[in-house]
Amino acid sequence: PICTALTTGRMTDDKDVLRDVWFGRIPTCFTLYQDEITEREAEPYYLLLPRVSYLTLVTDKVKKHFQKVMRQEDISEIWFEYEGTPLKWHYPIGLLFDLLASSSALPWNIIVHFKSFPEKDLLHCPSKDAIEAHFMSCVKEADALKHKSQVINEMQKKDHKQLWMGLQNDRFDQFWAINRKLMEYPAEENGFRYIPFRIYQTTTERPFIQKLFRPVAADGQLHTLGDLLKEVCPSALAPEDGEKKNQVMIHGIEPMLETPLQWLSEHLSYPDNFLHISIIPQPT
Amino acid sequence: MEEDEFFGEKTFQHFCAEFIKHSQQISDGWEWRTSKDCSEGYMCKTQFQMKPGTLVSHPGTSAHVQTCLPVEEALELPPDDFEVTETTAGSEVVKYEYHVLYSCSYQVPVLYFRASFLDGRPLALKDIWEGIHECYKSQLLQEPWDTITQQEHPVLGQPFFVLHPCKTNEFMTPVLENSRKINRSVNYITSWLSIVGPVVGLNLPLSYARTAS
User: Fold this and answer.
1) Which sequence ranges are marked TM in the entry (chain A) (predicted)?
2) Overall domain count for chain B
3) Going by fewer Cβ within 10 Å, which terminus of chain A is more open, N or C?
4) Does residue B114 fall inside a structural domain?
């Protein structure tokens, strides 16, 4: 549904877009790493992963399934890998998939590890509190960009808690009851102060590009996705009369470059209020 | 990019350059690094310390003092002036790396750091927490997730510990206001680092303060 709306430019009910983003799922097959020590054969485990959530938040069942065939002493912190790349649990699931696996056939095949935690590559995830702290830290940073932290700081602790509980329990209405306030802006402005975004590419050393960028130009024109890329990541765009080398992907789709950035920020942000944008090679 | 705030990226780079100039004069070890694919950079320094939790006691005092001494200072104490009454078994040398980056979201500098033993084994968050200076512990105990957390280094992409930047403006504003009052210009980075550094074992020699910015 988002596909049609954004690639043909046909107007669609904005609320539907929010729901489609929230309920996006990726069919995934989890397989235990072959060198893990098991007492009997471990069957793969299939799960639909929510694009907007985090791996360590939604894989309790996966952990339990594999721990059933292992001895306690062979189990330490769980971590996930795709085609040799350790998966960063602190990146949203949809971002990881778009960036690393979107050109491959479904289901997404993830390997599960219980030993040799890659200390140099991955953050530890000692508890659900760590995920909550990370999530809230991103939400706060996004609001620092959008509203100089005024909206998030005005909220009570229970509102912050509601954002987290909404995400954790997959409760769209509970989440958006609070999040809608983070999507407002003063009547006299045409948008947020700066747009919270991060652009990811596997080909660079740097994990992502994040810069200050306003949604509205000095003359009052709304900046587009194309304007953003031209300014902060020009290599992502095809040269004037050259061939398209890359896909610019958010939530598994390629929005038209003419889409206003303010609209994208309000409708295609992840629950952390950031636009996480993947630049991937055009599949042949 | 946009720089309508008083502490934009260019200002950050300027103060860091001044800071590093002085560091070079006193061989304090700070360097500037840039990543291959962008113009932004950061300051960094490596230092070696005794692992937090090493207990060193002076004769005549009954209290055990938890310290985080730079290795050179610990070794310089003449043997008959102090008596090691207790050390944790196998106290070890820890390598600390400190990185000062600019946060465009909060428009303040941010202190990233990581610690490992000489064999490469990293220190865990709980070891870091235990090594925090006594006077900061009470704040940390109340809200541990608010102050020091493990995060991805935005340029290197590797796990580092971070002192959270959202309270920076709170403590820097009085410093800057005071410097305006007494009409003496101040290097923002020097002032900021002299406040946050000691929390995590990073101390600045006093000569930084005497340098005009």
Assistant:
1) none
2) 1
3) C
4) yes
* Pairwise CA distance, residues A57 & A118, whole Å: 19
Domain of residue A75 covers 21-113
Using an 8 Å Cβ cutoff, are A181 and A31 in contact?
no
> First vs last Cα of chain B: how many Å apart?
24
Whether A122 and chain B come into contact, CB under 8 Å, resolves to yes
Token output for A216: 């509205």
Q: Is the minimum CB–CB distance between A144 and chain B shorter than 8 Å?
A: yes
Rounded CA-CA distance B76/A224 in Å is 62
> By residue range, what is the domain housing residue B104?
9-50+90-209
DSSP 8-state class, residue B121:
P
Residues of A in contact with B159 (CB under 8 A): 119-124
Tell me how crowded residue A184 is: count the other CB atoms within 10 A of its CB.
12
Q: Which residue has the tokens 């409760």?
A: A171
**Residue carrying the six token digits 């309920």:** A23
Asked, for residue B128, whether it belongs to a domain, the answer is yes
**CA dihedral sign of residues A185, A188, A191, A195:** negative
Shared domain check, A139 and A58: no
Give the domain CATH number at A86.
3.10.20.620
CA distance A136 to chain B (A): 10
Query: Which of A85, A90, A119 should we substitute to test contact with B (largest number of B Cβ atoms within 10 Å)?
Result: A119
What string of pLDDT tens digits covers the 284 residues of chain A? Answer: 455 445 444 456 788 999 999 999 999 999 999 999 888 999 999 999 999 999 999 999 999 999 999 998 888 999 999 999 999 999 999 999 999 999 999 999 999 999 999 999 999 999 999 999 999 999 999 999 999 999 999 999 999 999 999 999 999 999 999 999 999 999 989 999 999 999 999 998 899 999 999 999 999 999 999 999 999 999 999 888 888 899 999 999 999 999 999 999 999 999 999 999 999 999 88
- Cβ of B157 within 8 Å of Cβ of A124? The answer is no
Question: Which H/E stretch holds residue A29?
Answer: strand A25-32
Q: Which DSSP string do the residues of B84-114 spell out, in sequence order?
A: -----TT--EEEEEEEEEEETTTTEEEEEEE
How far apart CA A59 and CA A82 sit, in angstroms, is: 15
Task: Reduce the DSSP state of residue A281 to 3 states and report it.
Answer: strand
Burial B75-101 (b: 16+ CB within 10 A, else e): eeeeeeeeeeeeeeeebeebebebbbb
Cβ-contact B191, B100 below 8 angstroms: no
Taking the CA of residue A194 and the nearest CA in chain B, the distance in Å comes to 9
